[in-house]
Every structure is written in structure tokens, then in C-alpha cells.
Amino acid sequence: MKSLLHLLKKQPGFVMAVNFLILLAVYMLSRWFFYYMNINSFQDVTFSEMMTISWGGLRFDISALCYLNLICIIMQFIPLKVRDSVNYQRVVKIIFLVINILGVLLNVADIVYFEFGGRRTTSTIFSEFGGENNLGAILLNSITGYWKVWIFGVLMVLAVVFLYYNPIKTKRHEDDYAENKVYYPLHSVLFIIAIILTIGGLRGGFGMKMHPLRQDSADIYCKKPLEAGIVLNTPFTILTTLHKKGYKDPKFFEKEQLDSIFYPIKNENPRGGEMKKLNVVVFLMESFSMEYTGFFNKERDYQGYTPFLDSLLGQSYCFEYGFANGIRSVDCMPATFAGIPRYINPYCYFFYSNNTLQGLPEMLKNEGYTTAFFHGAPNTTLGFKGFTNSIGFDAYYGMDEYANDDDFDGTWAIFDEPYLKYFADKTDEIAKQGNPFFLTVFTASSHDPFKVPDEYEKTFTRGEIPMHRVISYADYSIKQYFEKVKDKPWFDSTLFVFTADHCGVSCREDYNNEMGRFLIPIFFYTPGGQLPVKCDSTRLVQQADITPSILGLLNYQKPYFSFGKDIFSKDSSFVNYVFNDRNGNSMYYLDTLMIEYSGEQLYGIFEFKKDFSLKNNLLDKKDEFPQLPFMQKQIEAIIQQYISRMKDNNLTAK
């Protein structure tokens, strides 16, 4: 009887495991070489941070290698005795080497490309270079110009080839096998285990509440979006974007003309003077449609479900027309904190999610602010933790930090009331550190399955639809926050900003249209009287305006990037616009007129202030609106700026 160890070494599954580990070592070496060759881009990365990045990168390496080697994994674990034949193993080896040599070369090639693109290559490379007639010359120039990279690449390929583990040199004899009644059940179990582990590897883990790995997941392990290039590997970024189509540059205008029509760099000529270092607290309210408020629906005689917010609106600077820039929770933060509205696809889940952004938290942190983000859901939820890292939040307080699952709603997050009381305590704790602070809290309870804590089952009735009950509970919870902080010494020197992440379920016909689906409350509350109390019915505000407006109120003195505007600007060049998009159907609002645009065609014109329900399309009367040429140029320029700057990783003022 041969030893158990001897038998194990010749098992095809063991062969696969050993070769997989060799590949992991090759990918990790490639990561460190990638860092070395692009070290000028990563001068702030410390040794301990590099270890964190490498540990995070291991998840992406495992995922990529599971994708690449899925066929080989199945071939090596499928419970058939033919696996032990020499010819079978030769076929597996050929498949393994061809696929993985290609993977290694793609990974190494990106070391060269990263310097120019600032991010890992995605599947857009096939369309970007598809029309190149001189691809051979490009590759030759790359090889001669970056010979160190290609020497390293050759060494890694040789390592994969010569370290390939294959102990099955001769045909196995029947006496090497266990009896069929043992062999097939045992190897069937091993096959199932291998498939389960592979699925976990593909997803990046086994957590039920964890989303499968995406490019933006890399931001969890780094401080800046640029550093995600070290975490990721190119086979992963290509394979996970193959099913997605990149943006097609419409090329409406030449570059100089484009910038003269719409230019997203703000504050190039600041007003001067001292920066006003007010504290800033932003409430992102889950699914708070304008439809649910009483304050904004007085003329429609709709019942409101937000009594506290209604009272706060009466003490704030608010806007009759406030718009979301997206339709999902993940659309809210890029718009609100980096001036990036949704266009067709969610920014965080698309090719360009590792672009370098100029986020409000980073800008304020550089001015001495303490920054933190609060969300009572599990820390892996929707990639929020990674995105907050990428835009400069210092700290993240999620369900892990809250550390009391007794207050968990059983589905999504900690109930709003206890979590917002926790947020109040943390706000005061941070305030006592003595620095100005910028804090954001994302509420969670106003969500399906519309659940409130047991003690409030009889307090909050269902309303007309289930959403109304949880909106009332969330409104009550926000009130509890203010009850705890209203007498704190920092309260009067704090700017409170409120917005919804997107609209919730609608039950009002007036709101069931392309405008109503984006209408949300956006308002600024200054208990110290820094802003007047006013409901502005003329200026249009969107989530992307929040960062420019905050920076304007603080008298921020540096240039920054945003597709939004400073809503309080008194500049004569101020354009009173809003842009949003629903899966390629774009809307542009200017003063009292809204146009709908899709496929380079204008297909809707509405006087939305007179026609709140958008029942009267005035397209056949377009000659009556002299502002239309300006509006169409604006929407085309916004779309072109968006696409070209996404592709060029050019989303900062630097």
C-alpha cells in the first residue's frame, strides 16, 4: 500500500491546488513590481499600507484566477478516473498554460499603460484599440521603451511554465484506486467542495450580505482611487467588465468650443478672503421623496408624513424644486460629494469607478476638518465603505462599529432611532476634539420591508402605502438626533444639509412622471442664522449642487471639479440648470423649461412649473422657445464632457 502522502501528491485536485498557489505568488510579485514601476504615483503609500493593499489584492487575485481557471478546476476535480491518465493531464496542462500565460502578460502589460490611464485596463481596450492599424508598431515601441517590464513579464511566464506541478508521469494502475463504492462518493464530495470554494473565490468571500467583488470594492483597501490600481489585477478588471458596453464619445463639439459651452472646473478665480470654517453635517435620507412631505404639498392638499422635517424646512433655506441626480442609492454619493451625476450607468459600478475624484471630504480634510461617514448597515453594503475611502472620509462608522445587533432590523441595518442617537453622541465626541468637522449620516429604515421597531407598531400607522409608515418613523428618528444636539456648544456654528438619496415608492399621480421620479427635498439649515429662512421657488437645485454650494458658503478658495453649481452664487454668469438621466433618457431644466433628450434627439419640451404632471409635450411648438438652442447645446456639452472626462480619467481640477 503506497503511503497516503504519495497518493495525495498524485491527485489531480492536489495538482490544481499547487499550481493555483504558484499563480497567486506570480500575481503578488506582479503587484509589487507594478508598485515599484509606478512608484512616482504612489509616493504616499507606507509599508503598512502596502501590506493592507496586498492583503486586499489577494481577494482579487483569487477571484481572477478562479475565472481564468474554471475549466481546469472542473477538469481536475470531476470524479472520473480518466483524470489520472498522462494524456488527460497533458490536455489540462496545455489549457492551463495558454490561459494563464495570457493572464500574466495582460497583467504585466498594464504596468506600462497605467502611467497614461491612471487605472487598470478594462474590456474597453478592445474597442479603444480595435481600429488601430499600427497595433504592431505600438506594441514594439512599448517593448523597447519599457524593457524592464517585459523582462519581468518573460520571467513570470517562465515561472508559470517551469514551476508547473505535474507528478502524473505514467499511467495509474488499478490497485492505486479505492473501490468504486468509496472512490466515487469521496471524489464527488471533493468536487462539490471545490465548486463551493471556487464560487466563494469568484465572489470574493461567502458573506450572504456581501456583494460580489467589483472594481470599486478595491477602494476598501486604499486611501485614494489611484491606489486601487495596486489592489486590482488586469484579468479581473477585463473579465468583470466584458458584459458591459463603454460610453461612445458623441463628439458634438471641438475641445475649445466644448469648454466654452459647459466647463466643469469651478472656482478658478475665487473671491478671496478667509475661509469660514463652519461645521458641516449632511443627512442623506433613504428614499425621502418630496411627495412624502407636507411642506412642499400644501397647494396640492396632500397629507405629509414628515412633521419634523416640515417644521425644520420652515426654519431653513429650501428650494421648491429639488432633484436627485440618480435613481439608486449608489448614485447619490458621487453626485452629492464629487459632483458626478448618473449618466446611463451608476458611476460606482461602471468601468470608470476607479477614476480619481475630487471629493468634498478630501477638500475639507485638507483645510483641517475631521471627516467621517455614518451608515447603520453592514460595512460591505453597496460598496459605500470603499467609495467613502476614495473621496477622503477619515473614518467609517457602520454596523460593525455600532456593535449592537439587538437594534438590527433583521434585513438592512440598525433602526434609525438608535443609530441616529449614536450618531448624535459621536458628533459631540468628534466636536470635542476641537477641529471643525464634516460628517455625513445615511439613514436606512425608510426601505422595504417597511419595518419599524416593535414598540412603535401602534405609533406609526401604515398611511396610504407601507412606505409612509417608515418615512414617519425615520422623520421621528431625525427629530431625536436634534433633541440630543440642539443645546451643544457647536450646534449654532454648524451647517446642516438635507437631501434624499433618491425617490421612493410613489402613490401620487402628479409625481408619476419623469420629473416627479426625481423630486426630493434639498435644504440648508443654519441654526446660527448664517443663511436666511426662505423657500426659493426660482432657483433649481440638484444633488450635484450640494458640494459647490457648501464650498461657496464656506468661502473655499481653491479650484475644484463638479457638474453642479453653487446654488447661492450671485455671479452674473450663473446658469439656473439641472441635469439628470434615466437609463439614457436625459432631462435638462433651465428656469421654467425642461427638455427630454435621447439618442441625439430632442423628444420632449415641458413648461414644468405650469405643467407639474408633464402632460403637455410642447415639441410641436418648439419655435416658440428661443432658449431651446442654448439648452440643447448645454445638454450635449454636459454629456460630451462627462464621457470624455470619464474615459480620460480627468475628473479633478488638478
The CATH first-level class of the largest domain comes to Alpha Beta
- The CATH superfamily name of the largest domain is Alkaline Phosphatase, subunit A
Bin the helical content: 40-55%
Number of helices: 21
The major pleated sheet works out as: 8 strands, mixed
**What distance lies between the first and last C-alpha atoms, to the nearest angstrom?**
71 Å
Q: Going across the biggest sheet, name each strand in turn.
A: 5-4-6-2-7-8-3-9
| Low-confidence parts | 128-135
- Secondary structure category: alpha/beta
Cα-atom radius of gyration: 28 Å
Q: What name does the CATH topology of the largest domain carry?
A: Alkaline Phosphatase, subunit A
Mean pLDDT: 90
Helix and strand layout, with pairings?
Layout: H1 4-9, H2 12-37, H3 47-68, H4 70-77, H5 86-117, H6 125-128, H7 135-145, H8 147-162, H9 180-203, H10 228-231, H11 234-239, H12 255-261, E1 265-266, E2 279-285, H13 307-313, E3 317-323, H14 329-338, H15 360-365, E4 370-375, H16 384-390, E5 395-397, H17 399-402, H18 416-431, E6 437-442, H19 467-485, E7 494-500, E8 522-525, E9 534-542, H20 546-553, E10 560-561, E11 577-582, E12 585-590, E13 593-598, E14 601-606, H21 628-647
Parallel strand pairs: 2-6, 2-7, 3-9, 4-5, 4-6
Antiparallel strand pairs: 1-10, 3-8, 7-8, 11-12, 12-13, 13-14
